[in-house]
Design goal:
By secondary structure, this protein is an all-alpha fold. It has nine helices and two strands; from the N terminus they run αααααββαααα. Strands 1-2 form a two-stranded antiparallel sheet.
Length: 413
């Protein structure tokens, strides 16, 4: 299995999560928390797989660009080699025409030599027949004694001179014919080798070009496969994140309902205790401020320094916070997470004070004077505290549900 296949296997396996998403969350009764939603780790895994596929697509795109450039270069080289082969072949054809002419000249020289040899023989015969003598028995002494024979001897000399010239011409023609034949063969041999070399280069260049085109096609096929896988992973990652968010909202709703039950039971217990105390103390009530647990180690009411001006109205504070979500770019789906967050931190009490850290108010600002940026009445006005707290959540976590996720993991936000 090649490295690309291994990467694809590692990426596609998490797609099985999609089957879980399609099945939807498991049903649960009112007293059980919601289940069947993906965990934060599964969200991170899906996002990591998407990032890995995206990086692989980028790598293949870079490889493809390099191969396409190489293919273009090899294509240009193939064209150049083909041009050189065409030139060499044209030169061979031209030389073949030249050598054909040389061959014809050689044949003509040979014919001329043959003709000259025949002419030489003919002249000797004609001289002999016209003179009527046989030069064999003649001598210079006889020529001196017989003047008539001197004339015949002069004629013989002319015949011999002409014969010698014709013989020389015949030799020259023979040598020219031999030289032309040798030149023809040498030219044929050289050009045939050049033609063969050029043809081999052209064939090699064309083979390299085809191989480069095959590599481009194969790599482009890998790219298309990875792009398709990336699209699938992107869709899956978004679905997992959406289901996770839905799970967080469902969990926030469940915890809000449980908190409401606990608060109702607490209020009933306090009311029952107050009624019993009133009956025992002749209708005099002794109201104790509620004590709740916060994210930083607990908080107590009445410690904010606001005195009688402090307004503790958890229901009103929740209503105001809900009305302000849109101003920070959030929908009402974030209210459940916000309710859980500030219920755990302060029970939405204006003067809730953490005895360990000194954090104060609905949003548990630390140090408390951070509220001052939202208004000078921050000690007693839950609206000022909420405006500051929503801005803090937006700047640090992006949304109440993200802040609540951090709260659940670290017990502070």
């Amino acid at each position: 299995m090649n490295p690309l296949s291994l990467r694809l296997s590692a990426i596609i396996v998490p797609l099985l999560v999609a089957s879980l998403l399609q099945a939807g969350p498991a049903s649960a009764d009112d007293d059980a928390p919601p289940s069947g939603y993906p965990s934060w780790a599964e969200v991170q895994q899906a996002q990591g797989n998407e990032a890995a596929a995206s990086a692989e697509v980028d790598r293949i795109n870079q490889l493809l660009a390099g191969l396409q450039q190489k293919s273009g270069e090899l294509g240009a080289a193939a064209i150049k080699a083909g041009t050189e082969y065409a030139k060499a072949h044209d030169a061979l054809l031209h030389q073949q025409a030249v050598t054909q002419k040389l061959a014809e000249a050689s044949q003509q020289a040979k014919a001329k030599a043959d003709s000259l040899r025949k002419a030489t023989s003919s002249l000797v015969v004609q001289a002999y027949e016209s003179g009527g003598f046989d030069p064999g028995p003649w001598s210079l002494a006889n020529a001196a004694i017989a003047p008539d024979n001197i004339q015949n001897f002069a004629l013989l000399n002319r015949v011999l001179d002409r014969t010698a010239k014709l013989h020389d011409d015949a030799l020259s023609a023979s040598r020219a014919s031999a030289a032309a034949t040798a030149q023809e063969q040498a030219a044929r041999d050289v050009l045939a080798q050049l033609d063969s070399d050029a043809a081999a280069k052209a064939q090699a260049a064309e083979s390299a070009r085809r191989a480069a085109e095959d590599s481009v096609a194969a790599t482009d096929g890998q790219r298309k496969t990875m792009v398709a896988q990336l699209a699938s992973l992107t869709s899956t990652s978004a679905a997992v994140a959406q289901k996770y968010q839905e799970g967080q909202v469902a969990l926030a709703a469940y915890q809000a309902a449980q908190e409401a039950k606990r608060e109702a039971a607490q209020r009933k217990a306090i009311a029952d205790a107050a009624a019993a105390a009133a009956a025992a103390a002749n209708n005099q009530q002794a109201v104790q401020p509620p004590i709740s647990s916060g994210g930083g180690g607990g908080f107590v009411g009445g410690g904010g320094g606001g005195g009688g001006n402090v307004v503790n109205d958890p229901a009103g504070a929740r209503q105001y916070a809900s009305s302000r979500l849109g101003a920070y770019g959030w929908g009402q789906d974030q209210m459940q997470c916000l309710s859980l967050l500030w219920t755990q931190e302060s029970s939405w009490m204006t003067d809730a004070t953490n005895p360990s850290s000194g954090a104060y108010g609905v949003a548990q600002a630390l140090p408390p004077d951070k509220y001052y940026s939202a208004g000078s009445d921050w000690l007693s006005n839950y609206r000022t505290q909420i405006d500051w707290g929503l801005g803090y959540i937006r700047d640090r976590y992006g949304s109440p549900c993200n802040a609540w996720q951090h709260e659940m993991g670290f017990n502070w936000y």
